[in-house]
Amino acid sequence: VSKRPKLTVVGAGPGDPELITLKAVKAIRTANVILYDALVNYELLKYASSISEKIFVGKRRGCYSYQQEQINDLIVAKAHRHGHVVRLKGGDSFVFGRGSEEIEFAQHHGLQTQVVPGISSALAVPATQGIPLTMRHVSESFCVISGTTKMHQLSNDIRIAAQSTATIVILMGMGKLSEIVSVFSQAGKEDISVAIIQNGTTDREKSGFGTIQTIETVVAVKQLSSPAIIVIGEVVANRVQLDSILKEVQSNSLILN
Hints:
By secondary structure, the chain is α/β, with parallel strands linked by helices. The protein contains nine helices and twelve strands.
């Protein structure tokens, strides 16, 4: 195995271990070191070589095992010592994944770099619930927004998006749900449909459906929490019933209109 210092930033997909690309599997197999995050399905590590070093660098319950600067330094140190480092990140590493920051740091320190795109949870999770992000005569566009900024404030982009007819997909927004509801209510969108999907595409998936006016009640009754995706828009009301989720939706999902 080559020991030339190299970083491959790999998108691990939304959680279902089968939603991984062949190129990602190849990268994992050839890695000397794998640095993986909390939202990565650990089953993907079975593709790794038995002699590869595997290091958890993710965040759990608000606590970072490593700060970003430490991760950057670790990538460079491990690559110069061992060769090929794979940085395995949930979803797609260029969608709120800080993958570009790690690539730039690695290049500055002489590493070869490569990116393997992943299936973003922003797209895949709504799809598994039959929610089309765009739909003729319903929604001509969609926005993907981080609910919380670096300064732990509600993103101003949500206020802008609330004025549009686009489908809004909010990641990392559960802690700001009350503020999000307030923003859409002030925009006169109390009756617009909302879906919240927790642990999407995994066997721990839970979902709740309602409107801006009712969604906080849905969350309380269903006991929904992070990690979850919030989808706001009329496409939620127009979702299709997939065979794989029909029974689950009928028996477990609370729907308040």
